[in-house]
Amino acid sequence: MKTYAALTAVGPDRPGLVDEISEYLADRKINIEDSRMAVLGGEFAVILLAGGPPLAVEQLLTGVEPLEKKTGLTFGLKRTRAPGETPGGPSLLYRLHATSMDHPGIVHQIARLLRAHDINVESLDTRVLPAPYSGTPIFSMDCLLRVPAAVKISLLREELYDLGDDLNVDVSFEPAE
Question: Where are the domains of the chain?
C-alpha cells in the first residue's frame, strides 16, 4: 500500500537544489510521482506529489527540518489522495491556450468563466516574454482542464472565444491528447 503527500517549497535559487530534494526523498524510499519546478525571479519553487510506504510518508510529513536547513527552502507538506482519484462525476480533459499582448486580468477573466461551468484547472502555465523585434510583452497561457461531461462543449467554446474577443486574446480550446 502506498500513501501520498503534496510537497511545496520555495526559496533562493542555486545549483543543486533538485539533487538535494530528490536525494532526500530517494533515501527514504519515497518516489516523486509528479512534479513542477521552476525559477521564478530569483526564487526556486517546487510542487510535487510524493508517494511511498505509509511510515516513510508519515516521517516525511513530520520531519522535513533537515532538508530545510540543507537547502535553505521553506517547505510545506500535506497528506493527499492517490493520483487518478478525482472527485466528481465523469469528465473530459481539454487543453486551453491563450496568447495576447500582456495586460492585467487575463487569467482572472478566463478562470471566472471556467468556474462558472464547474471546470477544474488541472494545470496552468503562464509566461510573459518579449516579442521578437518590438520587445512588446506577450502573454501566453496553457491549461489542462477537467470539463464535466454535462458541460456543452460547443457552448463553452463559443463563450471562451467571445471572451477572447472581448479581452483581445487569441484562444484555442481542444480535446487533450
Answer: 3-80, 91-175
